[in-house]
Amino acid sequence: MIKAVGKPLEEIIDMVKDFQRVLVVACDGCVTVCEAGGLKEAKVLSAALRLYYNQAGQQAQVDDTTLTRQCEPEYLAQLSDRMDGYDAVVSMACGCGVQFMAENYDKKIIFPGVDTCFLGVNEERGIFTERCQACGRCILADTGGICPIARCSKRMLNGPDTPCGWELIYNRLKTLGQLDRFEKPVEPKDWTTSRDGGPRKIVREDLRV
Amino acid sequence: MSAETPSKLQKMIQSGNFAVTSEVGPPRSADGHEIEHKGHLIKNHVDAINVTDNQTSVCRLCSLASVIRLKLMGLEPVLQMTTRDRNRIALQSDVLGAASFGINNILCLTGDHQIFGDHPKAVNVFDLDSIQLAATVRMMRDEGKLLGGWEFEVRPQMFIGAAVNPFAGPNVEMRVARMAKKVAAGVQFVQTQCIYNMEKFKLFMKMTVDRGLHEKVAVLAGITPMKNVGMARYMAKRVPGMDVPDDIVKRIGGVPKEKQSEEGINLAIEQIEEIKGIEGIKGFHVMAIEWEQMVPPIVERSGLYPRPQLAE
Q1: ipTM score for this prediction
Q2: Which residues pair with B25 in a beta bridge?
Q3: Most buried by CB count within 10 Å: which residue of A61, B217, B241, B298?
């Protein structure tokens, strides 16, 4: 899922140093899995910030907590009773969570605690690699289950170039006996479902109440 | 090769003579005279002149302006276009602009990744890839239509080319399959990566002929003379997709420094002579990188000069 890395401590200190009451909010979702913005990381960050204020001779209150997810208003609402007690919030969620926190608490100063990187997998412990660019129209059926948009540096739909995912695609299609797919030119892609169409939105009528 | 165009390169290929193309790299400045100078150096020895499009992702005077300049000198340019820096609107717009000046040859490329060039922080576009660009130019030429559906009367008369690299991974079979895909998209001629590994190139051509692809696309063999052993080592080790066998490096390095460039020229001429005998070869693309003045002696000593004069 979403992969992120923690921001450098100095960068976060620079954001919060003028505030005395700071809440660090972890997210139990993706950023916990990649160990960038879960409760464990939030506790480490809040301890480091307390140490900073202490050494700087400043009176400050730094607390930490976590939410099941920060991309849903129901979970964000769980903070509503506590928010008045803080001047600033460091959200350890992905960029979606940080923004949704800011939207739901529009009078509060919200800072990001992580750098959100990509949609990826835990290839092995401590190695996260990108698999999907969320282009909005999946073509994995044609490419042997390997994405040329996310895994070719030139996002070529008619690869290969080296080094890129097209070598993987070619080998896999060969294994699957589907090389005919390789030689068939692919039409220009409709990028409107990707970044190029503007900020994206999914409406699932079946889930709406 | 299907569609007939006014391209002199296409006519030369169809005449049964070996075609000869070369290329000039535009300057990293606004000095248009450099293009003219390089064009003059080679104009009598080639049938068409490629102009590179910000090759290796290094920003240069644009290929479109350069080919217009060559055209106005009465030469036959090949417009190289990469899809790295422009989306489908800009690409089609440039094709129309080039055609409006009577440019009749285009080489469709995806382009090197910008990370290798002088602006590694730049965004890349890759709205289309080289194959989609070729198919787009074919549609513009044969159907008078843009990707957006707009239909127009005055069509770009482009002879459509692409690059092929027989030496890149993972194997020759896949490189032939990729060329077949380019042909299916409308590519009529290809210029190959610089050939040093002759055995692999022969295998590539054999597989090309076995599939009958040589009857659908004109293969122009890429020849680049080595200036010295430093260049040979650099090409062998540092240039992705280049296959320079050890014996080539040893041969260039085996003569005194002042004789190395001559040895490089000799090697290029021997390569051309050998490649002439390979079935399916329709000509040569002689790329003398920042060494354009060597194109005439190579062409002359390879028996490819004088260039045949075809009726207009």
Answers
A1: 0.72
A2: none
A3: B298
